[in-house]
Amino acid sequence: MKSLFFIALAVTLFLSACGQTDNTLTEREQIVNELNPTRNYQNPANQDLDAQIGYVRYTKEQFENDTESNNKEITVDRHAMADMITRIILQNDDFNEVATLVTDQEVLIAYDRTEAINENTAADVAKRTAMSIMPRYFDIYVTDNEALVYDIQSLHNSTTENRNYDNTIDQIIEEMQKSPQGTENTPDMME
Predict the structure, then answer these.
(1) Higher model confidence: residue 105 or residue 52?
(2) In this structure, what CATH number is given to the domain that contains residue 139?
(3) For the residues 31-58, what does the mean pLDDT come to?
């Protein structure tokens, strides 16, 4: 009977020790999950809407009489824009990893490029991709400094309501500007 008790105790202690390793792993996974910028993003409930063509037509009179549309604020889905920019850049075989942050004023893109593409061309590809997607008033900064991927990621839970991250953004931009920013003949400069 005593030996059965000791065997049960030994098994319990063994399983407890194994559980601690699993808990440590679970804690690490939880931290990684909390840092994942896409963890709270949900795809649209009705996927058929993505295939739908968008069309709207108003007369000036209809628009002025529609009090609901006059009170609507125009918004940009920053997560969707960052996701789209990142996915389009990664379609180019010369990029291994891309991190994109879209604030209310800036687009920050950090990437890991292959040796097959030079740094100026990579910067041009990244910047022009963002320019083709974002409204014109956004300032776009790019870098192949992989260390800045983590700096950009550290801001993914920030909001644009109070912009308490301005100093951090300014520091990141200052570092990004040490990298090539694409050619000078971007559409903004051609006007």
Answers:
(1) 105
(2) 3.30.300
(3) 64
